[in-house]
Amino acid sequence: MPRGAVTTAAVTAVLGVSALGGCGSAVDVAAAPSAQVAGCAAAAREWPGTVSGLERGEVPEAATAAAAWGDPAVVARCGVPAPGPTTAECLEVDGLGWIAAPLTDGTRFTSFGTEPAVEVLVPRRYAPEPLLLPAFTPAAKALPSNGLRCR
What we know:
Blueprint: H1 8-15, H2 38-44, E1 50-51, E2 54-55, E3 66-69, E4 74-80, E5 90-93, E6 96-103, E7 106-112, E8 117-123, H3 137-141
Antiparallel strand pairs: 1-2, 3-4, 4-8, 5-6, 6-7, 7-8
């Protein structure tokens, strides 16, 4: 596997995602490691009601600062570790950086320059995946800056 490549299986193990929606069931998402920090509460208040026309679904109550939209689900979590300085491609969307990591069936985006970070998993079905990022900019911008920016 190339350096920086992430498989869906790896993301499933980290997130605890066992089913991405379907028939009204909740998306099984685990809270991120730092989901309890005050910044994530502020970020979660900024989750959008819809993402590119996809309705917001249910996630377990224990999935603090996480949300999901559509089927297959676009999943967002606040409280993942912030990426440090990197040579990875950084996309700037509405003044906020995002680091993309390919998945076997989509892309994982991690906010760059926030502490902690927001993680957004976008299934390939919604390609081009970066076009969904503007919906998450207000949530990520609610987090404290760590001074890092896209170059």
